[in-house]
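Continuing from yesterday's entry. The apo prediction looked reasonable, so today I'm repeating it with pyridoxal-5'-phosphate included to see how the binding region is handled. Same sequence as before; SMILES copied from the compound registry.
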Amino acid sequence: MDVRFRSKEFHKESLISMIPYGRHSINDDDIAAVVAALKSDWLTTGPIVEAFELSLERIVGAPCISVSSGTAALHCAYAAIDLMPGDEVITPPITFIATQATASLFGAKIVFADVLPETANIDPRAVESAITSRTKAIVAVDYAGHPADLDQLRSLADRHGIYLIEDAAHSIGSIYKGRAVGSIADITTFSFFPTKNLTTAEGGAVASTRPELLKKAEKFSRQGLVRNPKEFKILDQGPWHQEVHKFGLNYRLPDILCALGLSQLQRLHDFKTRKREIFERYLIELSDIQEIGLPTEESNVNTNWHLFPARFDPHVRNTVFSGLRKAGIGVQVNYIPAYWHPVFQDMGFRIGMFPNSDLFYSQEISLPMYYELKDNEIDLVVQTVKALV
Ligand SMILES: Cc1ncc(COP(=O)(O)O)c(C=O)c1O
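Holo prediction written out below.
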């Protein structure tokens, strides 16, 4: 169940859903870890935060800081590159609006580059033609967990002397050409919302192999406080002294939630294995229906699937969607192209500008995909889809 939309209508609908499109898995170890944190001396800013961050580093292949959401992680990433009014960031339309909102809050100009029809990931050729002298960063989103074309984007970024940021809200645990997502872009951001590949309820992380960028992201997420005496501009105060050179916010993830994350990280491999099985089962069961477009995995990646984005003819998509919801299957559409939002329409964007994104949106339905989804539930989804098309 996507609990993000808390309207009464949605809540009522989600309560009668038997099968949500995504959900968390919490076991006794997870609960014990949280209880132990609650009984400890540190509810926040304690040792479990560091333990979680070190554990994350082992999975994603780069030093990490934990933050309070995927949105916060993106905000910190943009702070780390000193994003400013007049800077341009190139983003894909098929994403959750946080990818753009957090850059826009720094006054940056949002530029869209269309997606590839197969993966709904940003198209490197579209990125190339969108680069200008004001471009500060390319932002790739690993839609559904499938890594974007990171090598091509990396070389574009290097060639133009700009940053590559990877919004990996969907893709912790995914592998690109043998390398972990998190170790390739200049900065990678993660989300630990309950529908994602692991959860801390709300939470996120920023990863970077570039210490200066991670330090800036960290400072921004901790109120901008400078604690190292060597960096002080006000001297001769006392041992209590700390000072601010640039404003930041409080995006800390407390020990209680880091404890959950630490425990969940140990289950990440199992989560991935089961979701890859579910993915395969859907492919096999649905492959004989011509009316459905199925997601594919490129041969050089190993995806930790967050979504199963099936595609239907736009004329039947809404009927299939309503039919599935009526049958108690809580499907979702991910996503309305970001530039359709009125906030972008007010800036002059017009529907139709990014045809691949628009087509993908008009066709897509995310079928249930989560660790605890049972085989008989997959069968029910498949039968219902077959009956509806
Ligand atoms: C691609 C993408 N980026 C960023 C976010 C924001 O993450 P959070 O909900 O943890 O703030 C999400 C969450 O849905 C997402 O899907």
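Comparison notes:
- DSSP finds 14 helices and 17 strands in the chain.
- Residues 1-11 have pLDDT under 50 and may be disordered.
Will overlay with the apo model tomorrow.
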